[in-house]
Amino acid sequence: MRKNPALAMATGGIIAALYVALTFVSQAFGMASGVIQVRLSEALTILPCFTAAAVPGLSIGCVLANLLTGCAPWDVVFGSVATLIGAVGTRMMKNHVGWAWIPPVLSNTIIIPFVLQRVYGVPDAWWFLALTVGAGELISCGLIGILVAKTASRIPQLSANG
User: Fold this and answer.
1) pLDDT at 79 over 50
2) How many CB atoms are located within 10 Å of the residue 86 CB?
3) Residue 154: strand, helix, or coil
4) Smaller CB count within 10 Å for the chain: N or C?
């Protein structure tokens, strides 16, 4: 079957828009940034299991969400890199959907504590920040992400794109 670049662009764009919208929902509840964060948008990081278009969609969505929610420039860069690494890792695990939530959890757990310390001057120890960020990522990617995966697996267009 021939790939459709227009469909891939549209899919990536929709994923980016969803990422931004869900980040705003998280921000409305004070959960989008800080030492303790549960970004609902991070649940979408499971989507690269179903379509390669999710990788650029998530990355662009994260850049836009970080810019629009007022993150510092270095947070926009490194936070988006963490999401990109997680999305690429998830794509590499597309045949193991049940474990594909691990790459975004790990990338954010490792990178974001440095951002919090260096960019925002959070005085807490790296390990403590890794624990709090990792817990939020487990909720977003692990729990909610698995629900997203179960839903996405029922959508024929997504399961066919694999």
Assistant:
1) yes
2) 31
3) coil
4) N
What six digits make up the tokens of 155? 């959508």
- Which tokens is 119 given? 């960019």
pLDDT tens per residue, range 112-126: 999 999 999 999 999
Q: Measured between alpha carbons, how far apart are the two ends of the chain, in Å?
A: 12
What pLDDT score does 1 carry? 39
Query: Would the pLDDT of 109 be above 80?
Result: yes
DSSP assignments along 38-71, one per residue: --GGGGGGGGGGT-TTHHHHHHHHHHHHHHHTT-
Please tell me the distance from the alpha carbon of residue 86 to that of residue 137, in angstroms, as a whole number: 11
Q: Report the CATH number at residue 25.
A: 1.10.1760
Cα 27 to Cα 30, 100, 128, 151, distances in angstroms: 5, 25, 22, 24
Domain of 125 in residue numbering reads as 5-30+37-161
pTM: 0.92
Radius of gyration of the chain (CA): 15
Distances (CA, A) of 65 to 59, 104, 118, 124, 162: 10, 17, 20, 25, 26
The Cα diameter of the chain in Å comes to: 53
